[in-house]
Amino acid sequence: VADKIRLIPQDFFAELCEQIIQHLNHKIPGVNTAELCQRIQTSGVEITIGDLAKIANVLSFLFSTAARHNLSTEELVSTLGNAVSTLPKHAVQVIRHVWNEQGKSITVSEDARSMATVGQFVDIKWKLGVAMSSDTCRSLKYPYVTVTLTVADPSGQITDKSFEMTIPQFKNFFRQFKEMASVLETV
């Protein structure tokens, strides 16, 4: 991971650390590593989304563990111990600065920990389409709905999950959402 961190420019690394702190503070649902990875690649750095996700997981673990143990900035940096020698100097400076500025704001409650194991819903998008034909069938002409759910997994990685439904399936899906909404109104 240290070799991959070395590739990331300091401003992008700082943005990643700040997003992780915001995620741990429940201010944002997760870290959009796909978008950040694309911006890093556009700047000319060769890094994969998988590598960036690993770095985000390591940093999230580092910050949440430091918060759980209520570490000061100096305790965090000294706890990194041998890793400090392998981490690039700019990364250690960013970790020190971000933790010093925002580390104390992280609250680790039992409710948040148990909720974080499930993931969090971020957004939903849908579109209506009509399949006109295929290789095996000349005239399909059936409507379908494509739904894309944006979800932040427990580590904070934001991913999109897409699926298609027939109109009857979508009507059932919609009915279930209406039932959930009516139950929520009574709470």
UniProtKB/TrEMBL annotation:
Residues 120-187 form the COMM domain. Belongs to the COMM domain-containing protein 6 family. It comes from Menura novaehollandiae. Transmembrane segments: none annotated. It comes from the Eukaryota. GO terms for molecular function: NF-kappaB binding. The gene is Commd6. The lineage of its organism: Eukaryota, Metazoa, Chordata, Craniata, Vertebrata. Scaffold protein in the commander complex that is essential for endosomal recycling of transmembrane cargos; the commander complex is composed of the CCC subcomplex and the retriever subcomplex. May modulate activity of cullin-RING E3 ubiquitin ligase (CRL) complexes. Down-regulates activation of NF-kappa-B. Inhibits TNF-induced NFKB1 activation. This is COMM domain-containing protein 6. PROSITE patterns: COMM.
